[in-house]
Structure formats: structure tokens, C-alpha cells
Write a structure and sequence with these properties.
Elements (H helix, E strand, L loop, with lengths): L4 H44 L1 H7 L6 H22 L6 H11 L2 H18 L3 H17 L9
């Protein structure tokens, strides 16, 4: 049975649409990679430059603790990108979140900035899942903490 022209055109259209969807997805991923790189570079500048770290620190903040939080924020940005790109998820994401909250700096950071990060992530399913894993790990590490979240 020969293939008819309308079938060929339909097949080509389906291939074209699939290619456009993939291209859009990859562009979206490249945008996230670029934005994460800019953000982590800026965090690195703050960590490495005490004068800038002091200038951008919240009023009354302990500068050394602020720098530790900046460093952790930088790590979290990389982990969030790995999650967004599908490199970590499920049990791996829970393991990473638990590992962050095993450390005092992770718990201190989340206690101070967790609510802010969750609000910032609202409406972004990948970011919300990442932050929910961190919040769950924080609550597990600090059982007397009231859960917050979405």
C-alpha cells in the first residue's frame, strides 16, 4: 500500500511540531543555565569581597554568617539547577536536602531565608518541588519547627 501525500504531509508536520517543542524546551533550559551562572557568579563576588558582602548584608547581620549563607546559597543555586534539568530528583533530591540540613549553616540559612525562597519559587513547579524538599528536610532536622510551604 503506497503512502499518500496527505499522510506524508501530516507526518512531516508532526515531526516539525515535535522539533519546535524540543527546541523551546532546550532554549528554556539554556536560559536557566545562563541565569544561574550570573547569580552564582554574583554570589561568588560577594563571598570573595568583604566590602561588597558588607554593603549587601542585611542590616545588623553578622558578616561572617552572611558570607556562609551566601556560600550555601551559591551551592543551592547549583543544586536547584541540577534538579530543574533532571539530574537529581526523588530519593536523590531528598538525600541532597537532608545533607544540607545536617549542617548548622544549612539549618541557619533555611531558618532565615527559607520562607523568602519559597515565596520566590511560587508558580514555578520545579523550584517549588526543590524548596519543598529543603523545607521537609529542615522540619525533619528541627522537629520543633512549624512546617511552612505551599
Amino acid at each position: 500500500m503506497p503512502i499518500r501525500t496527505p499522510h506524508v504531509l501530516l507526518l512531516l508536520a508532526a515531526v516539525g511540531v515535535t522539533r519546535l517543542v524540543q527546541s523551546e524546551r532546550h532554549q528554556h533550559q539554556r536560559n536557566h543555565i545562563a541565569l544561574t551562572a550570573l547569580h552564582t557568579d554574583w554570589l561568588g563576588v560577594l563571598v570573595d569581597n568583604p566590602e561588597l558582602a558588607e554593603a549587601w548584608a542585611p542590616e545588623g547581620a553578622d558578616i561572617e554568617q552572611w558570607k556562609r549563607h551566601l556560600h550555601l546559597n551559591r551551592q543551592l543555586c547549583g543544586l536547584a539547577l541540577r534538579h530543574r534539568l533532571g539530574a537529581i530528583g526523588g530519593a536523590g533530591l531528598r538525600f541532597v536536602a537532608d545533607s544540607v540540613m545536617e549542617r548548622e549553616v544549612g539549618r541557619s540559612y533555611w531558618k532565615t531565608y527559607g520562607t523568602f525562597r519559597q515565596k520566590e519559587a511560587a508558580g514555578d513547579p520545579a523550584a517549588m518541588a526543590f524548596h519543598t524538599a529543603l523545607q521537609d528536610a529542615y522540619v525533619a532536622a528541627c522537629p520543633d519547627t512549624e512546617p511552612t510551604g505551599y
